[in-house]
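Anyone up for a design puzzle?
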C-alpha cells in the first residue's frame, strides 16, 4: 500500500508539472546522454586516428576497386589472385604517377624558380614606380623584417622539420596498414561482414544486413562518381594550362584531381593554386584566362557532372555537406574533409534503408536464412 501510495503521489507530482516542461526535461537528459556517448566515441576515434584513418581510406579504395575484383572473379579468376592483381596494379599505377610527377616537378623547378625571380623583380619595380611609390630603403627594410622573423623562428622551424621526418615513419606504417586492410576487404569482405552480423540480434539482423549492403553500394557509387568528376576537372584545367603555356601542367593537374575528392572547397583551392602559378610565371592576362577556365570547369562540375554522376548516389542536402565538411576540417584537417562526406553518405543511406525496411516482412526471416 505504501508503494501504491508513493506511486500515486509521484503521478500527482508529475501531473502538477507543466507538460512542456516535462517533455523538455525528457528530451534534455536523453540529448545529454547521446551527446556524452558521441563525445566518448569522438575522443576514442581521435585517440586511435593512426588506426581509424588507414582503415577508412582502405574502405574508400575498396569501394573503388571492388568492381575490378568482381569483374575478374566473373571470368573464373580466383578471388585471392584477382585481389592480388588489382592491388598490385593499383599500387603500381599510383607509384608510377607519383614518380612521374616528382620527375616533372624536379625538371621544371629551375625554370619555375627563374620565372618567379623575374616576377619578383617586376613586382619590386611596380612597388617602386607604381601608385605605392615605395623606396628602395623601404623594400630593404621589409625584406630585413622577413629575414629577422625567419631567424627568430629558426628553432621552431627546425623542430618542425624533425617532427616531419619522424612522421614519415608513421606515414609508412599507416600506409602498410591501409594496404593490409585493403587486401582483406577485397578478398574476404563478405566473411568479415557476416562475422560482424553475428553480434546483431536475430530479429533485426536482416534489416541491418540490407542497410549495410545499401551503405556499401552508396560508398562505391560515390567513389566512382567522384573519381569521374575528378578526371574531368583535371583534364579540363590541365588542357587550359597547357594551352596557356603554364609550367608544371602535370603536377597541377594531379593536384586538381586529388582536390576534387574534397567537396566544395577542393576544386576551389586547387584551382586557385593553378591561377597563382599562372600569375607568378606569366602575367595578369594569362592568370585571368586560367581563372576563367577554372570557373568554367567548376560550373560544369556543379551543374552537370555532380547531379548526373552523384545525384542518385548521394542524396544529401548541400547544407549538410557543407556542415559535415567543416566539422571534418576542424576535427581532422584534410583527412577529415576527405572522409567526412563519404561517411555521411554511407550513414544516411544505411539509416534510410533500415528505417524504410518493413519489419513485418523482414522480422519473420529465420536466422539461418538471413544472408541471401
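Challenge accepted. My sequence:
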Amino acid at each position: 500500500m505504501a508503494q501504491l501510495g508513493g506511486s500515486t503521489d509521484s503521478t500527482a507530482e508529475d501531473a502538477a508539472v507543466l507538460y512542456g516542461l516535462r517533455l523538455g526535461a525528457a528530451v534534455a537528459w536523453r540529448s545529454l546522454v547521446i551527446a556524452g556517448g558521441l563525445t566518448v566515441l569522438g575522443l576514442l576515434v581521435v585517440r586511435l586516428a593512426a588506426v581509424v584513418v588507414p582503415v577508412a581510406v582502405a574502405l574508400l579504395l575498396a569501394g573503388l576497386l571492388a568492381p575490378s575484383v568482381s569483374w575478374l572473379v566473373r571470368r573464373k579468376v580466383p578471388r585471392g589472385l584477382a585481389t592480388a592483381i588489382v592491388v598490385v596494379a593499383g599500387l603500381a599505377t599510383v607509384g608510377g604517377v607519383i614518380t612521374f610527377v616528382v620527375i616533372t616537378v624536379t625538371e621544371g623547378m629551375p625554370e619555375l624558380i627563374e620565372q618567379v625571380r623575374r616576377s619578383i623583380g617586376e613586382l619590386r619595380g611596380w612597388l617602386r614606380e607604381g601608385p605605392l611609390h615605395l623606396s628602395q630603403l623601404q623594400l630593404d627594410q621589409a625584406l630585413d623584417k622577413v629575414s629577422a622573423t625567419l631567424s627568430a623562428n629558426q628553432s621552431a622551424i627546425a623542430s618542425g622539420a624533425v617532427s616531419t621526418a619522424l612522421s614519415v615513419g608513421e606515414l609508412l606504417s599507416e600506409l602498410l596498414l591501409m594496404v593490409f586492410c585493403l587486401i582483406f576487404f577485397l578478398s574476404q569482405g563478405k566473411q568479415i561482414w557476416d562475422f560482424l552480423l553475428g553480434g546483431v540480434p536475430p530479429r533485426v539482423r536482416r534489416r541491418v544486413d540490407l542497410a549495410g549492403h545499401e551503405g556499401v553500394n552508396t560508398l562505391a557509387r560515390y567513389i566512382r562518381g567522384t573519381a569521374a568528376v575528378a578526371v574531368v576537372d583535371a583534364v579540363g584545367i590541365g588542357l587550359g594550362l597547357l594551352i596557356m603555356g603554364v609550367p608544371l601542367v602535370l603536377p597541377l593537374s594531379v593536384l586538381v584531381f586529388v582536390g576534387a575528392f574534397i567537396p566544395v572547397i577542393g576544386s576551389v583551392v586547387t584551382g586557385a593554386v593553378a591561377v597563382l602559378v599562372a600569375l607568378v610565371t606569366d602575367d595578369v592576362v594569362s592568370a585571368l584566362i586560367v581563372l576563367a577556365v577554372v570557373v568554367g570547369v567548376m560550373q560544369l562540375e556543379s551543374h552537370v557532372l555532380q547531379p548526373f554522376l552523384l545525384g542518385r548516389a548521394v542524396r544529401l542536402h548541400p547544407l549538410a555537406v557543407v556542415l559535415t565538411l567543416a566539422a571534418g576540417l576542424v576535427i581532422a584537417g584534410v583527412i577529415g574533409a576527405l572522409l567526412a562526406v563519404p561517411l555521411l553518405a554511407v550513414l544516411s543511406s544505411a539509416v534510410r534503408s533500415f528505417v524504410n525496411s518493413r519489419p513485418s516482412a523482414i522480422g519473420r526471416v529465420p536466422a539461418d536464412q538471413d544472408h541471401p
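A detail worth pointing out: DSSP finds twelve helices and no strands in the chain.
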